[in-house]
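so my prof wants the structure for this chain in the tokens format not the other one, which i didnt know existed until like an hour ago. anyway here's the sequence
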Amino acid sequence: MLRVFFALLFISFNALADNCSNLYEQHLATDAKLTYEKFDQTMGEGFRALEKEKCFLEAANLISFYIKETQNKEISLRWHLAQMRALSGDYQSAINNAKLSLVSSEMQAKFPIKWNDFVEANIGFWERDKDKLVRYRNEVSTGAKIKPNEINLVFLDRLINNFSETYQVAMYGNDKGS
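here's what i got, hopefully its the right format
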């Protein structure tokens, strides 16, 4: 009975890996031609098609390819690359890319979204520094009346409540995907 269980588990894992690999190859062939909005901001398109299937490593690799091919400098691309690297377990790469998504203090002062605080809170999680995560989460809370900050607080609270877990488990629960 145990052999059957492990055989089914192995087959399921290989099927998921094959699915991710196939999706990656499909998107690699076409996505460098997509606009930034289609690739990064449209659900079901670009890297988000891979993310939806929990193909986080492949999604990260696709974003990296897109950045290289298009030379696009949008901050959200770096942020999404950081998230996908973290979801695939590569926290150091996530930290490096998240730091590239920080905005200048002048730009931050112009907008009510507590972007840099949100990014730094995530970095705190990846560095396993709960004090840092909580400190920056509390900074985001000072702008809680702004919808994006309110949404980001829910996300950060999930990280705090699941601090002992991986980023993937903190974000998606025990359904670990790939």
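also thought this was worth mentioning. The radius of gyration is 17 Å.
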